[in-house]
Structure formats: structure tokens, C-alpha cells
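User: Please predict the structure of the protein below. I'd like the answer in C-alpha cell form so I can feed it into my own downstream comparison script.

Assistant: Understood. Taking the following sequence of 92 residues as input:
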Amino acid sequence: MTKADIVSEIAKSTGIDKNTVLASVESFMSVVKKSLSEGENVYLRGFGSFVVKRRAQKTARNISKNTTMIIPEHDIPSFKPARVFMNQVANK
């Protein structure tokens, strides 16, 4: 499902025009991105949590050049679904 599909589904079920729904979805995504970039987690009860995880420094190998490189520690965004959400997907 794409963003356009999501916008269409929400517009159909709520009766709100697609441009307004698209603006709302875009705004939601920008708020989540901004919060995560500032190190704040986003919790949506019954849906899941968008969290920032810290990846430790590690050593990697470039096998084509046979060299070793160090990848520094860094933050990555992650999503952890709520238990209710996981149960709903599992029971289809």
C-alpha cells in the first residue's frame, strides 16, 4: 500500500477531500521525522512506537578491496508495533 492508497482509503472512509487528507498525512510524517531527529520517541497507543535506536561502533570489511573499515556508532529510526497491532496482523 502506498501513501496515495492510504490517502484514498482515509478520504473514502471519512468523506474528507483527498487534498486535506494528504496534507494531514504529510504533516504527521514530518512531525514524526522531526521528533525522531531530535531524539524524541513517538508513542501511538494501540498502534506502536517510533523510537530512535543507537547502533554501536563496528568493524566491517570491504571484500572487493580486502580492507577493513570502522563504522562509527549512529542512531537509526525504528518502529515497534503494539501488541494489539501484532495480534491483529497474526489473526488476519
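That's the full C-alpha cell string. The radius of gyration is 19 Å.
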